[in-house]
Amino acid sequence: MLLGVNIDHVATLRNARGEESPNIIEAAKICIESGANGITAHLREDRRHISDVDIFALKAEGFRLNMEMAATYEMKKIALELLPDCCCIVPENRQEITTEGGLNVASNIENMRNFVEPLIDAGINVSLFIDPDKAQVSAAADIGVKYIELHTGAYSRAFGTNNENSEFNKLKQASSLAHLLDLNVNAGHGLNYQNVKRMLEIQGINELNIGHSIISRALFTGLDNAVKEMLNLVNKN
Ligand code: PXP
Question: Is 9 a catalytic site residue?
């Protein structure tokens, strides 16, 4: 399983002082040198953490870059100029603290197809961030993307409670259906050093995108160790 490290919260910390530290390029370098397979960054409409300068600087450094973005005209224009390796299309609203739910692609097939087509034509691996729901998975396949990212937030929140298994089974079933439909399956949101272990029970997950837990642990152990510890868990067979 590949690990993409989401470095948004390094930028959150930097922006708390409005200066250059901690430097996100330095953080991204440490993640990659510690074995991460790519860098994920969410350029939000309100630019609350990652800035336009950041995203272009990450690309210029040659990191394998997954740009998370809302399905807006502004973001599409930036993505077509940036040409990241991957774009993960996420829902976004201004009030949310973090991405709350998956995209509703099932009721937006035509619009979503029109939105992603130019990105795919430009050679970007486009994925749709969706809840582990069969209708959403089928719709993603209809739209013509090759990747989905399953929202693991509900499973992560349910971890250790009576609902853990039912939320986990939704991920497992959505992933099986996606594979039948020839979709590559990524997953992320809310994963940490405990709940990530069950991701290994799901066959064929391509990549996990993890941010908050790694950046939080880095405060205590250093970013290199935080990334390596997560890689150890993710790559256990
Ligand atoms: N994947 C997607 C699509 C996200 O929006 C986020 C949060 O920015 C993540 C993964 C990472 O989530 P977390 O920071 O909870 O690990």
Answer: no
pLDDT at 62: 97
Q: Which residue has the tokens 């993710």?
A: 234
C-alpha distance across the termini of the chain, in Å? 10
- 152 in contact with ligand 1, CB cutoff 6 A: no
Q: How far is the CA of 32 from the centre of ligand 1 (A)?
A: 18
User: What single string gives the DSSP state of each residue in 133-176?
Assistant: -HHHHHHHHHHT-SEEEEE-HHHHHHTTSTTHHHHHHHHHHHHH
Query: Which of the following is catalytic: 9, 49, 151, 189?
Result: 189
Which atom of ligand 1 lies closest to the CA of 210?
16
Strand partners, 3: 208
Average pLDDT taken over every residue of the chain: 96
pTM score, whole prediction: 0.96
Decide which of 3.30.540.10, 1.10.3370.10, 1.25.40.20, 3.20.20.70 is the CATH code for 2-234. 3.20.20.70
Task: Determine whether the shortest distance from the Cβ of 215 to ligand 1 is under 6 A.
Answer: no
Domain boundaries, the chain: 2-234
